[in-house]
Write a structure and sequence with these properties.
With about 325 residues, this protein is mainly α. The protein has 14 helices and no strands. The longest helix has about 55 residues. The radius of gyration is 31 Å and the shape is elongated.
């Protein structure tokens, strides 16, 4: 009995080690994915900060802009976590929503005009910290209720970015949003007291801005969709999605310090290898290998041309000299 128990314990220990190893590899992959998404977001934020500095009369210094983007992005990622856990929308989809909003022109950091509009609408002032994040949150809230799958959410995200950040209020865009279940004219009527045509005309005339339309949409989503999206996080599918997000965040928190050490060292090795490659050391190595190969082939050809009797004597002599038995 004792031996059987020891065997069971041994098998359980091995299984535990295997599972831990698999989970460790998976956690590393998830953390690496989040790092990649974060770096991409840093790039978009850096571009925005660089352009803002240039528009303010400064020079375009992307090195400084990228450095300034790091803490901004860290705050955005924290906000993204909150959005992902407050809706059944996955963190990858929230990341995608934020990146698209920024790419289409929504500001990653606070602006005076957006802050004032958030205040006028009586919304939570935390939303003023990042227009792009506030829009991503609103898209996630609406998407949680209306999008039946990830493809529908992507279309909803894209069409809203076009409509609100670019003012593309075409019949085609409105029809695609209606097909997804969202009537944008209803949003503008209720929040801006304008029809779709009036909103389009006002935007083209410059009397309203993309920020006006953004805050209108954010207010509408906060009023009608946020409670339902929060409720959906307690459905089975919602809980599974949120547990998946929590696992991803835990993996990132656990593995990121190690990844940073690994990537720093790999970066140093890459730089050293690049110097060697660009200096032509590997080309020289290739030539040396080619020359040695040619000598071996030439030697083989020479052996092939020796008469048979002399060939055997030569091979025996070479074998003896090398301490071999032919």
């Amino acid at each position: 009995v004792g031996g059987a128990l020891l065997k069971v314990a041994g098998i359980a220990a091995l299984a535990g080690i295997a599972i831990t190893g698999i989970l460790g590899v998976k956690a590393l992959q998830v953390a690496a994915d989040i790092q990649q998404l974060t770096f991409a977001l840093e790039g978009l934020v850096g571009i925005e900060l660089g352009r803002r500095a240039q528009e303010a009369g400064g020079i375009l210094d992307m090195t400084q802009a990228m450095a300034d983007a790091v803490p901004v992005t860290e705050r955005l990622v924290e906000g993204l976590r909150d959005v992902a856990l407050a809706t059944p929308i996955s963190y990858e989809q929230v990341f995608a929503a934020l990146r698209l909003q920024i790419a289409y022109g929504a500001a990653a950091t606070a602006t005076e005009t957006f802050t004032q509009k958030i205040r006028e609408f009586g919304l939570d002032m935390k939303k003023a910290e990042s227009p792009a994040l506030a829009m991503a949150e609103a898209v996630a809230q609406v998407g949680a209720v209306l999008a039946r799958d990830s493809a529908t959410f992507e279309r909803l995200n894209y069409n809203l970015a076009q409509a609100i950040q670019k003012g593309i209020l075409t019949a085609k865009n409105m029809r695609e949003l209606k097909n997804a279940g969202l009537d944008l004219e209803q949003v503008f009527k209720e929040e801006l007291n304008m029809t779709l045509k009036e909103t389009d005309a006002a935007f083209k005339a410059g009397t309203i801005s993309t920020e006006d339309m953004s805050v209108a949409f954010i207010s509408f989503a906060d009023k009608y969709f946020a409670p339902a999206a929060k409720r959906m996080t307690r459905s089975l599918k919602g809980l599974i999605a949120n547990f998946g997000d929590l696992w991803a965040f835990a993996a990132a928190d656990t593995m990121t310090p190690m990844i940073e050490i690994i990537t720093e060292k790999l970066g140093e090795w890459f730089d050293q290898m690049e110097v060697l490659v660009r200096a032509g050391h590997f080309e020289q190595l290739g030539e040396d290998i080619a020359n040695a190969t040619q000598k071996v082939l030439d030697f083989g050809a020479a052996i092939g041309n020796i008469p048979s009797g002399l060939k055997e004597t030569t091979l025996e002599t070479l074998g003896f000299a090398a301490g071999l038995t032919i």
